[in-house]
Structures are given as structure tokens and as C-alpha cells.
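Dear all,

This email documents one entry for the complex benchmark we are building for the journal club exercise. For each entry we list the sequence lines for every component of the assembly. Then comes the predicted three-dimensional structure of the complex as a C-alpha cell string, followed by one or two observations. Please use this as the template for your own entries, and keep the labels exactly as they appear.
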Amino acid sequence: MSPKDVLHVSDLRMEFGGLVAVDGISFMVHPQEIFAIIGPNGAGKTTVFNCVSGFYKPTSGHVSFAGESITGLPSHQVARRGIVRTFQNIRLFKSMTVLENLLVAQHRQVNNNFLSGLFSLPRYRRYEREALDRAMFWLEQLGLGEFANREAGTLAYGHQRRVEIARCMITEPRLLLLDEPAAGLNPQEKLELQHLIDRLRRENHVAVLLIEHDMRLVMDVSDRILVMEYGRPIATDTPKRIQQDERVIKAYLGED
Amino acid sequence: MSHYQNAGQGNIFADSIKHALIAAILTVLMLMPIFALHIEPPRPPETALSLSYEWSFLLYGAAAVFCFQLIRPFLSKGLSGLPRFTTPELTPRHQQLALCLLLLGAFAVLAFGDRAQISIGQLAMIYVILALGLNIVVGFAGLLNLGYAGFYAIGGYTYAVLNIHYGLGFWQSLPIAVVLAAITGLVLGFPVLRLRGDYLAIVTLGFGEIIRLVARNIDFLGGPGGLNGVSKPSVFGYEMALRPSQEGVQTFHQIMGWKFQTIHMQYYLYILGIFFAVCAVLVAIRVSRMPIGRALEAMREDEIACRSLGLNPTALKLIAFTLGAGFAGVAGALFAAKQGSVSPEAFTFLESVLILVAVVVGGMGSLLGVIVGGILIAVLVTTGTGFAEYRMLYFGAILVIMMIWRPQGLLPVGRRQVKVKA
Amino acid sequence: MTDFLSQFFQQLINGLSIGAIYALIAIGYTMVYGIVGMINFAHGEIYMIGAYVGLVVLTAFGAASGLPVPVILGSALLISAAVTGLYGYAVEQVAYKPLRGAPRLVPLISALGVSVFLQNYVALGQGAYDLAVPDILSGTWSFSLGGQFDVTFSYSRMLIIAVTVILMVALTMFIKHSRLGQACRACSQDMSMANLLGIDTNRVISFTFMLGAVLAAVGGVLVGQSTGKINPFIGFIIGMKAFTAAVLGGIGSIPGAMLGGFVLGLVETFAQGYWSSEYKDVISFGLLILVLLFLPTGLLGKSSMEKV
């Protein structure tokens, strides 16, 4: 593999007690690339996500990130290396404010500053100030500034999705995993999301791995697409060619 | 329309009488072998057991259950119409005010209390520290630690051993006691914190018991009788006593030119208790506002989301667990100083339950709540001889009732949220 | 060599009989866990109540009554099982049923409260002291393996093993073939699905608690015959051990609880016999911790993956 790939997944296989959920999945994500995984429900897309982000330990196969193997690493270590994700069913800290959601994500202070925090030393206060500023910066970036003080659970669905992305971005990831980010959004919001993903890639230099059912969004925003069915890969190619691929049309697009 | 309603009500009434009757009969059956048929142990030279009979309990019990079951349907219907009893949601500002008032109250006891009240005060401060410590584990981190008395024991035994076997004083022993309790927390926590919540509860219970059983069986720790003759803390290095225990050294009172009375030692221990309790409150407040406090809250809400952001749940829990153990270390050393002795029986599982009751009644996660809970426990444990006999019965029932009726405790305090100014 | 063999057999018999008791109680833990997903902390106390009810019956129908031994023992077992079953039912109704769907910590604390309450409730009613259980089934069967001492097999131990084995066979048949047993299995697979299919889940849950209590009561009556004394606090330690057995076997699995009970009984007896009896409870708690740490899914349990 070439070291310039951000993510390299090879021959991934995941079994759940005899049931094969994912088999023979290989792909790589280049820097600043937007790479989408599509496929019918139950095709194993989220399982691939869970293997990449460390929530599942793959039965076999390899996952490496920036040239280093991360196969089987616990999820929090994967995240610390620069892969963060969102969830199909939004997982915000609902009773905390939006601002606090973003503060929690800046965890590196948790361990470093225990004593200075206990005595509220200037060093600690500076860190807190900076964390707040960063949080506000990202909220403004995503147009969420006015909601900073609201409890996250009280926000509209579309805004919650954005908070989740902001919470990821504040950790300064190199690879962002978005699990059906457009689900439940209206057409206007979908368009905004599309611009947002594109902007994050251009301005913040993240690569994006995307699971999405909305074909329009996927085709417009992705650089390349992996199509899965029954846990197996069907094709990996650019949106244009995927749309013309016989197997894909038969297996997936043709069903509409 | 009204016809139907009447028929319905008639049925409900007949049904509830039937239910109440069944419940009463079952109650009689359950109570009979425990309360009505009392097994008399044989009086020597006899060897056989015999039964004595006491029927009144059955009658009361059955009547109570019958009445309760009878009015229950109406009760729940009637009550649902009424506004439910709630204490107003307390904000962090209320909490600050209440804490100041409590501190004033503590000094009022110092100024006006007699020897017995001072003694209760000392115990109250110890329980406040324990409750605050357990609250970090149960309330902040959401981990049920049922072996908390074990860490309390380590604090107490550390001071007792260092004092009796090595001649160290309170102030020298205290940091060692705290560190040792915390390290034990760290070492025990490391393997167990990956376990599920209910397993964790039982493993900690097991650890707590092991610590006590080991203390019972080691002569160095005094065996079942424990260690006696632990000395009292000094004041800035000067002994507080009528006469110095060594030649050529002055006591605190000689320096100050005061006349020594034994109650002065009690005052001093109480002041120390207040001091450490205030420290514990301050630390707990800081922890709740620091990133670790936020992270723990986030972890209680959604551990998976935390992991996806790079937070290590095990490490977070470990910090909380260790911190809680450290609090227990302080409380243990204070307890040994107050009693002048430690014994395995002071640190049983029931002690862990008592501390848990303080936390649960006050409100898991609420500083004000657990402080009040701690004080309440100390008062209940020391006063009322009639109460003492049944107190564990009550405490058990309180845990159940609180969980059903008010799992958030009597004095829940909303967390102070971080906000930006508009 | 023959001495070693005799000793070994003796330990085996002792271990099996105490293991049988653990197995009986462990089934209660495991069934409740399988269906409601909670650890019934108070189960050890249910066992203790079973022992007390049994002793009340034994005292009432005591040796002086002149009734034949099987009648006395049989009625003690039956009455104790019935009354203790009621306790199992009542505990579930009062302390757990209102808490379904609450956060995990909540029923756990409630269960702890029930446990503390029941201990002191019995202490209040019957006194917080040891009571000697009359030895109804005295007598032993000894045999020699050729060594210096004989292997003794008391009738009470035989009874424990026999009754346990019979109950386990009956329970297995019941769970496999009866309607209620099938409903139990359905509920432990998927409670809400079972509910949708018209199974009265409340009834199944009540039944599970009662069944667990009945088995624990049998254990309580029998162990009184074997150890000779009871007090209101015996439930705590035995409850812990039976819980260990349930985890060891794989919590949620009924055959696992049976296996775990026997394995634990044997390990404990041999550890005490060949090592130290002073640290008896330390060994038990240590074993509990080791099992939970290193074998949390147990011998026959399935590991489950958390859903993300």
C-alpha cells in the first residue's frame, strides 16, 4: 500500500457467531477524498464502520490508518489517532448543552490538568478559555452559534446532526466517518450538508468516509463509491462509472 | 353512558375487595412462620426447640395490607389528580447558600453543643466525607461500589498501624493513609472497572469483605479485636493533653497558657472533622466542574459516544474510583483518631450500605443532598436506642422506597452548565 | 495411596452435596437474570427464609410428634417451598416490578435494600442468633476403601444430592416441554417480542421469581439438615457463592447454573480440605472475583456483543 493513503482496509471479514456480516471488503481512502459506501439495508455498511472505528474487532483482515495498523485497537485509541465518527441514531449527550458537548470532545485536558484544575491554576483557566473559544469557533463554522447554551436534546433533528459533526471536527480528525448523515433531513438541509462535507474536506483537509442512502447526495459529493451487497463488495469506482455499472444497476439501483 | 360507568365502578369495587382479601391472606401466610410462630431456643438442660405463639402481628399485618390494597386503586387515581409532592429543583446557587448555612450550623453545634452532640458532630463530618467520596463513584461515575467500607478500613488501619507499631502521629500518617487507600482503589479498580455494572457491584462487595476478613486474621492488625490505644492528633506538632507524654516537651495548652479539659480534645477533633469535610466539599465541587466531571457526566449519558471521541471510559472510571477511595482514606484516619481504636467490625458490609443510604437518600450526584444524607445517617446511627435495634430494617426499606418513589433523591441539584454570555 | 483415595472420595461427597445446594440457589439467580436481566441480590435471603420456615415446621411436627421421618421432612420441604415461593412473588411485586425500564443502578440498589431488609426482618421475628436444627435424618453409611479411615456418607448428604438431582431433571423437563416453560424461554430470548406474541410476561416474571424461591427454599431446608444450624445472616455468604456458581456456569443458562454449582462446591471443598479452612470465606470471595474477572461469560454462557 502507498503511505499517502489515509485509510487502507484489506480483506475485511466479520462474523457474528457463524453469521457472516462482512466478507472480502477492501478499499482505501486517499487524503481529502470523499469515499462513500452504499448498498441496500443489511449489506454490512455499518459493520464496516464499526470495524474501522474499533467498536468491533474484525474476524480477519487488516485496517491501517496513515500507514500504521489499527486492526483490533480499542475504539478510543482509534479516535485518538484521528478517526472519529457519527452514528446512525444520533448520539449526543442530550442533557448537556451544545457547548458542553464540544468541550467533552476536547478530552486531552482531562488527564493532563488534574491538579492544576483542582486548584484552578492560571494554566488550567487558560486551557478552559481556549477550549471554549475552539468550541465557539466550530459552532460558528457550522452555523450553530445561537444554540450554544441549549441542551443538545432539545435541538431540531437537523441541528443535532450538525452538532454531532461539529463535535467530531473539534477533535481535529484526519478521517471523518459519517453514518447516514442525511437521514431525516429535508432537501434544503441535505443540500447544506453536501456543501458542508465538501467544505470540511477542502478547508480542514479531512478525508470523509460516508454511508448514505440518498443517491443524489452520494453521487454529487463523493469522489469514489464502494457498493456492497450481502456483506460483499460489488464494485468500487467513481460515481459516474458506478451509475453505469451493470452489476450495480442490477443489484441496487435497478430495484427502485 | 352513566349506566356503564356505574357498572364499571361496581366491578372495580368488588375486584379490589377480592384482591385485598387475597393479599391479606398471603400476608398472613408469609408473616406466620416469621412472626407468629416463634422458635424458642432450648433452655438447658432441654435440647429440643419449641414454639411460642404471637398472633397479634398477623392481625395487624393482614389488616394493614388489606386496607392498603383496598384503597390503592382509589389512591393512585386520587393522587394522580393532585400535584405530586416535589421539592423545588435546586439550582447550584441554592446549593451554595445551603452549604453556607450548613457550615454555620456546624459551628453552632461547636459553640452550643454538649459532649454528646459534639461526638455526633464528629461522626457526622466523617460520614459527610464518606458520602461525598462515594458520591464521586456512584453519583458522578455511575458505578455501584459496595465495598466502600473496605477503603474506609484501609484509612483507619493505616493510621492505627503507623501509630501503634511505628509511633507516627496523625499528621504524618494521614497522607500515607490517603495515598494507600487511593492506591488500593487504583489497583482494585484496574481489573474490575471493565466489568458490567452489576458485576462490579458484587466484585467490590467481595473486595470489601476480603479486606475485613484479612484484617480479622492477621495478628499484626490486631485480629478480631482490632488495634487499641491510637493516639489523638497533635496541634501544629504540640500534643493536646494535660501533661506531655515525653519529658521536656510542652503541650499545646501549656504554650497557650490554657487550662486543659478533656472536652477540648473533642472540640479539636470536631474542628478537624469540619475542616476535612469542607476540604472534601471543595474538592468535590471542583471535580464536578472540571473536564473530568464533564467527561464522567458524558460517560453516564452515552459511553459509546465517549469512546468514539477518544475518551477512555476505563481510565475515567479509574480516576473516579481512586478519588473516592482517597476520600475514604481521610475518613478512616479521622475515625481511628476519634475512636482511639479500629476493629474489623467497624468496617462491615453494613457500613458500606449505610454510606450508600446517605448518598441515595440525599440524591446521587447532588453534593448538597449527600452532605445532608451523611449528617442524617450519623444522627440516626447514634441517637435513639429504640431505633438502633431496627435501623438496618429501616435502612433496607428506605433504599427500596427511594428507588421506587424518588430515585433522584430528596435534594437533587441541577448541574451547573457551562454557558457562554450572549 | 488408599488413604489418599479415601480422603479424595470423602471430599468428593462433601463437595457434591454442598455443590448441590449452590446449584439449587444458582438456578434462581440465573433464571431471573435470563428473563429480567437483573441480579436479584435478595435471593440469598430468600434461601435463608426457606431455612427458617423449614425449621418452624420441623419444630412444630418435631420428633416428639411421632410422625415418620419422611412425612416430617416432606411437609417441611413442601410448606417451606410454598411460603418461600410467596416471598419470591412478593419481593418481585413490591421491589422490582415498579422499576422495570429504570436505569440499571436503580433495581440493583432496590435489590440490595430488600436483602438488608429481609435479613433484619427475620432477625426481628426469630432472633439474631444461631438456632440448632434438630437432626431428623441422623445416620451415615460408611464404607472402606482399604485405608486407615472410612469414607462416610451421611443420609442427609445423600438426601441433598438425590433431591437436587430429581428437581433438576424435573425443572429441565418442565422448561423444555410445558407451556409456561416455553413461555419462559421465549421471554429470555426477547421479552418485548414474547409480549407481542401474547405471552403474559408479567406472569412469566412472577413465576420465575417464585420458582427460584421454591428451589432456594428446598436448598435452605436441606442445608439446615446438613450443617446443623441457621441464623438470619446465612443468606449473605451462600447467596454470594451461589451467584458465583451462576456466573461460573454462564449466567442465564440453567444447565450452566447446575454445572457451576457442582464445580464450585468441589473446588471449595478441595481447597479447604487441602489448604486452609481459616480463610474459607476469603477463598470463596477470591474465587468469585477471579471468575468475574477472567470468566465473565462462564463455562456455558454465550458472549454477547454490544450493539453500536
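Observations: Confidence is low (pLDDT under 50) at residues 1-5 of chain B. Chain B is about 70% helix and 5% strand.
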